[in-house]
Amino acid sequence: MVDPIKETTDFGFRKVAKDEKANLVAAVFHSVAAKYDLMNDLMSLGIHRIWKRFTIEASGARRGQTILDLAGGTGDLTAKFAKIVGEKGEVVLADINDSMLKMGREKLRDRGIIGNVNYVQANAEELPFPDNYFDCISISFGLRNVTDKDKALKSMFRVLKLGGRLLVLEFSKPILPVLTKAYDAYSFHILPRVGQMIVNDADSYRYLAESIRMHPDQDTLKTMMELVGFEQVSYTNMTGGIVALHRGFKF
Ligand SMILES: C[S@@+](CC[C@H](N)C(=O)[O-])C[C@H]1O[C@@H](n2cnc3c(N)ncnc32)[C@H](O)[C@@H]1O
To answer: So where does S-adenosyl-L-methionine get bound (predicted)?
Structure first.
């Protein structure tokens, strides 16, 4: 039962004490880490690769830049950024979860991506980096899991350089009603079954579906970014708004 005196937040459709959510999210990602990449390909039929490619293109990343892949998990974006920034640049893959970081580090090392990537275990709400440090920050399918999203956005704003940009790739609100019905059926009936079959964990994939529904929609997230100081905030819907890429600048 939730303590009535404690502040609450959502964990999927459940209300939990605010200080409990990080542990619940951690349990999800410890459980799915080993099969995370396989499940991503299965669940999205490989389409997450297109969403991520679009994000990289929108990043404007260049040789020699310093980039933060926040909640970077198994490092899909880090791998791409590392190639773009080259030897003189730096990519930091930061994630709160050591199981996900371990999978990311091993995958990138196996692909020969080593010299310009650093791995940091960190909470998005309290980033352990200096002010005005990064040229670009991406957070891909991560913000949804963060307990205090405003605090995390403020922290990202602080560590971004003047002129730098933030990219938030996240599940969002489908814009076509017909899509919503099919998407709901898929998310709540098929997804947990696939999770049970592949990872032996239906609950984590039920949380995934629920957390997507609880996440702020496109315009709400845009306003949240503006309120912490990001400028020229815009978003692009992908796959009918199932996913949206938000972009904002620090000037
Ligand atoms: C769905 S995965 C996304 C991984 C990767 N960015 C991708 O797009 O494939 C979400 C990641 O967010 C991380 N995460 C959750 N809460 C976090 C927080 N407060 N700070 C940093 N990372 C967090 C999880 O550990 C997990 O690795």
So the answer is: 74, 95, 123-124, 140
